[in-house]
Structure formats: structure tokens, C-alpha cells
């Protein structure tokens, strides 16, 4: 029984004929499956899970959502660029995006995707495996590209990891997402979020259970703001410096959207103390101060009265 659970995975749709040449013998064994899934509409079970299981996210805090995505954008591919503050925020952001009418495909670490049962289910749900620091890490972007070409809406963390700045503001991010956005011309929707770091501590030990139980009791606010598309139309994929400019605009939009979510809290440090969380980076915009001349910073989110619970 244990062996059957370890090797079980749901049926994968066949790889479309036009993608067969994209898979070669040297590719990792999961690559063909993920390409096939990326070319399909979201799995019905994933849609059902977002509808029925999303409310369970609120067991550990009050999910509060601001902003919206226009209907005409929801009908096509989207790059959903979010800041990454902890292991729980994927659940929070996925639930928030479902509330605004989006069924996101999520990038996940190789460790999660290799887990029995949970990994195969996440893969079949459109999860895209990212093996950071390996020679197959680039395969994730190839899967993302196929998903976008087939109308997928992909949740991406441009920082590439849980942010490790002292003040909690997003890091500079990487240019991979920016290059992808310029190449595909898919709208980039900035998603700012705060509070999920209080549910699961950074350290991977039994302390996660302690902080989760504490969050279930305290019910911290898990705030998510979905912003307007980042303006990138004046930038070109092959022009020197434009990938960096796109990255700056994306991180500026995320940071600007985060400011009201942290209202009443310190801007130079994280109020919630997590002794297991290291500090290894500097924020793109320390203190949340985005220069006014950065295109795409946009207006702040609407007031708290418009929050959707």
C-alpha cells in the first residue's frame, strides 16, 4: 500500500503533436507531463478545490482582498507577479486570485513536487516545477511559456524565493520574469500581499506547527491586493537595459501596492518577529518608498472599506 501511494499519480493528458518535438531524451522525466498539462485548460478538480477548499485558508487568518482584474483580461493569459513572504502565502494568494475570478497555475519547488500524492496532484493541477540551482531549472520557464501560449494564468514570484530583506519589502527580483513578459507581451498583474508570514515560520521544523496553531487562534489579517497591469508597452525584448527596466517597474508596482497593506506597522522592520528567518538581501525600494518617476508605480489600493472577505 505504501509503495502504491508513493508511486501514484493521476492520469496525464496526452502531449499535443505540436509539442512532441519539444521533449528529448535528456529532459527530466516530468517535463513532458508538465508540457501536456500546460497546454490544457485548468483541471476540473483544481477548479473544484479552489471553490471548496479555499475557505479553509481562513482557518489561519482573515483573508482580505482588494483590487480586481477586468473581465477582458481574465479571459486570456496573465502573468501574476507576487511578492513572496512565507511558505503559506501561496495558499493565501491562490485563494485571493480565485475570488477575483482567476484560476492560477502555481510555480512550486522540486521538493514539494516530489512529495507522494501531493506532488502529483499539484502537477496535474497545473503546478510548474522549479528545481532552483540545477541544470534543469530553465525547464520551468519553458513550461510557463507553453501555459501562457494556451491561455494560462501563471502565478510567479519574481524574487525567486521567500524575500529575506530586513524590512520585509520585496527584493529587486530577477530579470527572468521581465524577459518573459517582454517576449510574450502577456499582461503582468502585480499582486501585493502581507500577513501570511505569520502563519508558518521560515525555519523548516516543528516550529511551523506552533506558529500555525498560534495563527489559528490569533486570526491575523492576510491581506492581498491585485493591482492594475504594469505598463511595459514601451519596452522591447531585445533592447539593452529594457529587461532591467521592466523588472524595476514590476517590483515598483508590487511595492506600491504593499504600502497600504502594511499601514500602521513599522516600515523599517517586520513587526512579527520570526527568529528563524535570516536577513540576506536588500529591498528594491527600502521602506516602501518608490520614486514617483518610476512608470507603473500606480495609485495606492482602495481603502479598507472595499475589502472582500
From TrEMBL:
Q: Does the keyword Iron-sulfur apply?
A: no
- A Pfam entry, by short name: Acyltransferase
Q: Where is this region: Disordered?
A: 290-309
A GO CC term?
plasma membrane
Its transmembrane ranges are none
In what ranges is there compositional bias, type Pro residues? 297-309
Q: Which UniProt keywords apply?
A: Acyltransferase, Transferase
GO process terms (BP): phosphatidic acid biosynthetic process
Question: Which Gene Ontology terms cover its molecular function?
Answer: 1-acylglycerol-3-phosphate O-acyltransferase activity
Could you tell me which residue ranges the Phospholipid/glycerol acyltransferase domain spans? 78-196
Protein name as it appears in the record: Unannotated protein
Q: Which organism is it from?
A: freshwater metagenome
Taxon lineage: unclassified sequences, metagenomes, ecological metagenomes
Amino acid at each position: 500500500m505504501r509503495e502504491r501511494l508513493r508511486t501514484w499519480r493521476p492520469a496525464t493528458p496526452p502531449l499535443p503533436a505540436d509539442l512532441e518535438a519539444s521533449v528529448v531524451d535528456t529532459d527530466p522525466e516530468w517535463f513532458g507531463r508538465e508540457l501536456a498539462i500546460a497546454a490544457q485548460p485548468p483541471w476540473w478538480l483544481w477548479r473544484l478545490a479552489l471553490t471548496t477548499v479555499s475557505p479553509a485558508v481562513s482557518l489561519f487568518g482573515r483573508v482580505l482582498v482588494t483590487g480586481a482584474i477586468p473581465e477582458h483580461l481574465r479571459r486570456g493569459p496573465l502573468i501574476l507577479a507576487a511578492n513572496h513572504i512565507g511558505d503559506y502565502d501561496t495558499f493565501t494568494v491562490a485563494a485571493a486570485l480565485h475570488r477575483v475570478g482567476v484560476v492560477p497555475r502555481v510555480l512550486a519547488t522540486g521538493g514539494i513536487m516530489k512529495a507522494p500524492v501531493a506532488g502529483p496532484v499539484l502537477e496535474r493541477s497545473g503546478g510548474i516545477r522549479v528545481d532552483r540551482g540545477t541544470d534543469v531549472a530553465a525547464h520551468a520557464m519553458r513550461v510557463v511559456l507553453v501555459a501562457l501560449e494556451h491561455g494560462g494564468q501563471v502565478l510567479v514570484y519574481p524574487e525567486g524565493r521567500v524575500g529575506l530583506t530586513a524590512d520585509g519589502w520585496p527584493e529587486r527580483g530577477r530579470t527572468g520574469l521581465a524577459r518573459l513578459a517582454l517576449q510574450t507581451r502577456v499582461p503582468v498583474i502585480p499582486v501585493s500581499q502581507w500577513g501570511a508570514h505569520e502563519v508558518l515560520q521560515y525555519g523548516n521544523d516543528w516550529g511551523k506547527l506552533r506558529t500555525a496553531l498560534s495563527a489559528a487562534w490569533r486570526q491575523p489579517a492576510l491581506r492581498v491586493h491585485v493591482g492594475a497591469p504594469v505598463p511595459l508597452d514601451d519596452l522591447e525584448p531585445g533592447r539593452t537595459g529594457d529587461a532591467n527596466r521592466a523588472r524595476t517597474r514590476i517590483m515598483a508596482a508590487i511595492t506600491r501596492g504593499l504600502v497600504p497593506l502594511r499601514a500602521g506597522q513599522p516600515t523599517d522592520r517586520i513587526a512579527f518577529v520570526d527568529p528563524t528567518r535570516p536577513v540576506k538581501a536588500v529591498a528594491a525600494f527600502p521602506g516602501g518608498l518608490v520614486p514617483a518617476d518610476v512608470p507603473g508605480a500606480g495609485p495606492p489600493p482602495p481603502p479598507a472599506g472595499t475589502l472582500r472577505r
